[in-house]
Amino acid sequence: MKHARKPRTLRGRATAALLLLPLCALGETPAADESWAIHGQATYVEQETDGFASPYAGANSLTPGRGAETTDATLYLGVRPWVSAELWLAPEVDQGFGLDNTLGLAGFPSAEAYKIGHNQPYLRLPRAFVRETLDLGGESVAVEPDLLQLGGTHTANRWVFTVGKFSVPDVFDTNQYAHDARNDFLNWTAIEAATFDYAADSWGYSIGATAEWYTCPWTLRGGLFDLSNIPNSEHLDPGLHEFQLVGEVEHRHEIAGAPGRLLATVYDSRGRMGLYSDALAFAAATDTLPSTAAVRAYRSRLGFSLDLEQTVTADLGVFARFGKAAGNVETYEFTDADRTVSAGLALNGTPWRRPGDRIGVAGIVNGISGEFERYLNAGGLGPLIGDGKLPHPGAEQIVETYYSVAVQAWAHLTLDYQWAKNPAYNSDRGPVSIVAVRLHLQF
User: How far apart are CA 197 and CA 260, in angstroms?
Assistant: First the structure.
């Protein structure tokens, strides 16, 4: 079975210019609209696990003392076909694998790793979309050019429509401090709410459309996307036979003059999914291992999350997320989590005269339902986890810290460390230490 991963998205770099606006946008000097742009990036990540305790293992277990690497390069091609629109194509070359083929932890340690891996480089087109912005009035807001964003000017009040192939987190659950595996945290559940089971193929992308309404301190968002044809598949189910609805409310605020945002995100996935209780009952009746694939029927899976980011000083920011999803239905696309809490901070290097450097620390606690625990203990497998049994379940607890060195303005070298207790919710295994090095180039 193929598994979805946290996608390589805009993650706060390109979208931050639109998302982090003043409460009702003070006037700014109008910027000349870019008519076209070309950007590029390349990222290399290598990770290794320590020799952690592993008294037993299953088909989806993390292996002690293993290493893995991934490499990718992306070209971003943007053009303005008419005055209010942007057309973007982003071909990408990928190579490599995640640890154990992206298995073993619900909070998987590298969002630069797809479940689908290859030893040789291969070419894909993960993004091809049109973005239309309709200005409704208010003060002018300058938009800086960036990846997947043409520089120019918009008004504080506006509609933004996006249609095509892109990643759901390009638009929803964004956070400037924890949303970009190429520049900040690597862990899947640090850069996104673990319970945000967003529509995606095995590479993390979908076909769909979104509408956003910006008005003073508020933004309302909605989206409709194709699900994959079966959970975690590399093929989408076209024509919205299986689909996901996503809604989000954002409020921008200031605390002691420092800007912040609070986002509330809700989704409803509607497709062929299995219940853990049905899988256990069917396995008992047929004397087989439980599998949700054997009992799938058309139903919904709901989820909700809160996402907070807050600037503290010019150099320091904090973030937090909370999420909950239906624990009786199998995960469809993202990762094995029914509840999650995460929090952390990011600090740039200005205090020690390295303004281009950045340090981050995050703590994450992920959990699953009792039904899912019983399913795993009976030998069932989730998208990313499954040790063959789970006699002593416990919450997955993860700490991640990184230091990113600005070698040049366009080149960053990052050292990353993650510590995970109860990997795959199994207190019999671990804790696990994972070290990584990341090299990221961007123009």
Answer: 25
Mind listing the pLDDT tens digit for each residue in 252-275? Answer: 999 999 999 999 999 999 999 999
Alpha helices in 312-433 (DSSP H): 370-377
Q: How would residue 239 be classed by pLDDT, with cut points 50, 70 and 90?
A: confident
Q: Return d(Cα 115, Cα 350) in angstroms, integer.
A: 37
Proportion of the chain in helix, strand, coil states, percent, rounded to 5: 10, 50, 40
Under 8 Å between Cβ of 246 and 258: no
Q: Could you tell me the two tokens for 198? A: 């967003």
Q: Residue 284 pLDDT > 80, yes or no?
A: yes
Which helix (H) or strand (E) element contains residue 233?
A: none
Q: What are phi and psi of 134, to 5 degrees?
A: -110, 105
Q: Which of 106, 295, 126, 89 is closest to 202 using CA atoms?
A: 126
Q: What are the distances in angstroms from CA 49 to CA 70, 99, 233, 363, 384?
A: 15, 8, 27, 19, 17
pLDDT band at 2 (very low <50, low <70, confident <90, very high): very low
pLDDT of residue 3: 42
Residue 297, phi-psi category: left (phi > 0), alpha (psi -120 to 50), beta (remainder)? beta
61, 232, 209, 46: which is closest to 129 by C-alpha? Answer: 209
Alpha-carbon distance of 108 to 418, in angstroms, equals: 10
SS3 170: helix
**Which DSSP category does 300 fall into?**
E
* CB contact set of 391 (below 8 Å; sequence gap of 6+): 377, 428
Residues 137, 294: Cα–Cα separation, whole Å: 54
- Average pLDDT over every residue of 324-353: 97
Give 16-442's CATH code, choosing from 3.90.550.10, 1.10.8.60, 3.30.1540.10, 2.40.160.180: 2.40.160.180
d(CA 412, CA 439): 6
